[in-house]
Amino acid sequence: MALAPLLDPPTEPPVAAAPAGAPVAVLFGSTSGRTEELALQVAARLSARLGEAVPVQDVATTDLAFLKVSEFAILGVPTWHVGELQADWDAVVDDLAAMDLRGLLVALFGAGDAAGYPDTFGDALGVVAEAVENAGATVVGHVPADAYAFEASRARRGDRLVGLLVDDRDDEPVARDRIDRWCRALPLGPGRSGARAARSRSDRSS
Ligand SMILES: Cc1cc2nc3c(=O)[nH]c(=O)nc-3n(C[C@H](O)[C@H](O)[C@H](O)COP(=O)(O)O)c2cc1C
Q: What is the H or E stretch that residue 185 is in?
């Protein structure tokens, strides 16, 4: 049975939900700790939804090979140095783009600062979105761009951003509300064995 319908208006075309019970993980990079905090908050909410612990891993110390057998990867990516990737993501983004991530659902979130960097707000989300899409993954979890005040972003696609941005200047209730809504809307679904897991099993047996 599908989880409750999304509370917010859909902001992207419907996609097949990732099977519950399938490997879902949060992977973050963070230089000053904000995206790490967000990662823990996201994982707590998703763990509650799924009824099982969603692991949180630091990209600086994680072998990305686990993504090949994951169903749903939630990537936490802050923007640094005026439109650049955070250093630990920068170190792996080319490897990520070269992986075979077909069948993987990816949702992106990260910290940013729209007032401080209005022309590069959350750019790194756009960079990582492009990398995982090049690798064949499907990016879900878009949000309406008009929920933020900024000029330009590589994360922008039409009237949406490719993932959840939590602004450094958001006060606590606003940040919490953004995270709550986004986590509720992610297409986590029921079932025990996803197409991806099946493909991976058949790859191993051939
Ligand atoms: C030197 C510097 C450059 C930054 N450049 C951007 C930027 O281009 N776009 C943006 O949205 N945020 C930018 N930020 C804000 C950071 O993304 C923000 O402070 C974030 O919380 C850092 O995340 P972290 O603590 O997880 O590393 C920048 C911050 C600093 C200090």
A: helix 172-185
